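new request in #modeling-help
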Amino acid sequence: MTQTQLPATAGESLAGPPGPRAHLTSPVTQAVLRVQNQITAAAREYLSGDGFVEMLPPIIGPVTDPGARGAKQVDIDFYGHRYKLMTSAILYKQASLLAFNRIFYIAPNVRLEPLETSSTARHLAEFHQIDVEVAHASRDDILLVAQGLVSHIIRRVTGTMAAELAFLGRDPRAFDALLAGPFGRMTHHEAAESLHGLGHDQDPHAEIDWYAERLLSAQHERPFFVTDYPKGSRGFYDRENPDRPGTLMNFDLIAPEGYGELCSGSEREFEYRRIMARIRETGENPAKYGWYLDLVREGIKSSSGFGIGLERLTRYIAGLDATWQANAYPKLPGVVSP
Amino acid sequence: MSVLRAATFAETDVRRRARLGAAAAFPDADGYGTALFGADPGRPAGDEIDTARLVPPVFMPQRLEKLIDLGREPLYGDVDLTTAIGGFTSPLPVYVSAFGSTQVASSNLGHAVSEQAGRLGVPMVIGENIVPMNGYGRIDADTERTLLGRLHRYAEHVPDGTGGVVVQQSTEDADAEVWNLVYSDPAATRLMDTGRLAFELKVGQGAKPGLGGMTVVSDEVGRQVSEQFAIDPIFGPDAGRVLRCGAPGTFTDEILRQQIRLMRNNFPRARIWVKVHPGRDIAQVTQVAWAAGADAVTVDGAEGGSGWAPLAFLNHVGLPLAECLRRIERPAAYCLLASGRMADGARIAKTLILGARAAGLGRAALIAADEDPRAGLTRLLDSIALELRLVISALGKYSPAALDADDIWLPQHPVTVAGRVPEGTNNHEYHH
């Protein structure tokens, strides 16, 4: 393990985004967007080669992912019916497996995050995810897909974008450990213990908070999975471990060097009765999930999947101070922007 | 004065308090010296709390302690009513409850209550008018303005270091994402930054234990909201109005536990309150809620509620509040709150003795603000504070926390009260 300097947060050393002209004409932005373009190309290359079908995600629907911590959904008027912009397309990912067994999207997400997140350097109100879902896959299966995908992307970017990375000041040797072996893995319980060791009071029943994630992240030199989050920290679709009630069969992928969470995923709940109970446990009114529950009642496939935050992955690979630098039209929580 | 009426409630008394303030703790001073006063034998019998009596002793070791502390004889003015309520601080063991989604809780009254509660630094629950009425099942712009307006009004007037706002959400308004709306709104920032924002999970309500929200709406509104609510034409086909019913929400111990944990997870900077109806499993419910991390659990007595409820429920359904409180085992660190026909210092003192940390004023706050939108609630609270000081000092005590089971006499349970450990000092003998 290495002791690494935490990347700066916007509150510490970085002003917010400049106007669109300054941002888009900046050589830094242009280099970052070229890196991002390679990331999506590499993702498509890897997943298509692995039998995945890329589908185009819906942007609106009567209901969206309720699992976004503390964030508000955006309502739109759909011919007199209140629809939502997707906070994530998770429900549609499960539905899409009716068509194909291996699917992915590169999907836009909109979340009105709490104002406090405007200074984390990691939150955008509008961002994109590389969304992957695999029918009949276990969590161990999907961890391998995530690891393979991220490794492939980094191998390709470091192989083809040396000039851009050099211009951005990113030393490609930062990825040597990542490319040399499998990602690390620890449970939420172990992560909480480790955080206690670092003097941070982590609630054993809650999500690892953003600061704690940075702390853990700074302790590692290659990405690592945190698995088995407690129920009560995630949405109803993350599958509860039948052998260990109260524990979810999910994971986050945390980048090293203080960059924090890149990806969340899980084995999914797919049985009607269990989903209904979980919907209530997450305080949701089942009525609004009508179309989804109808599908589930008739039967959907078991699956596992994940979503990689594209701007966060770009930030990590390009070594950026803030996630907004990886978006052409960045929108920080609470900041009115083009 | 508006058309607001509360026939089954001590409305006349509350309005008098709202006009007179502390003076309302006594009979009219005009008759002083000429009239004879005494207990009113014609006073209608209430619930068990009403029939219970506060019973001061003669020997008062805690008064002796206070005397030594002060260097003079203590008086009722020496009672410190400051109380920690669900993570907040209040100048007295009272908070303002939500009023329900009935029409009476309209925005002007709501604003009047918010402003006065804020100025006094008394915690306030906002729950009315949140239930979506536009048929989409989500919050509309007017409701959003009302909700945030009340929050803003409170935050504008509240002094530093006291009070707090509690925003309620029930199963049927979960779709409206009320908590998410507040959590990401600048109006809540000041309260959140100072630890004075809480979210209350509404599991049930006292007036209709086991049922969801019920209101009477016009045919037209009924049609508009029929996707979201059950519409029942109980008034007949030509009445022009229908009964609108919300779902009560399904709870098990695991559902409650996980909902509370998810609230803590999603809103780490907010306190978590839980409001329950007087269920027969109240002991288990409170334990689950506290263990999952609730900062306060409110028991809404079957006597409570400003809403519209079936007569069968108003008269026959739900545990009496006193019995509810008796069933709850409450370690000192946990905050138990109670509401249900609270409008005077004596009933509130009895409720505290039975185990509650503080009492919620619902209808009383609404009627007081209706009597005088500028200062009615302030005067009502003045009268309650005076009564609490009188009663607590008469019991030989000088803070609400010092009250215990010895301080009450219950005709139906004359021996003792569970849930509070009597202080040993009362058994001391003095030989002088």
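bot summary: Residues 29 and 35 of chain B are 10 Å apart (CA to CA).
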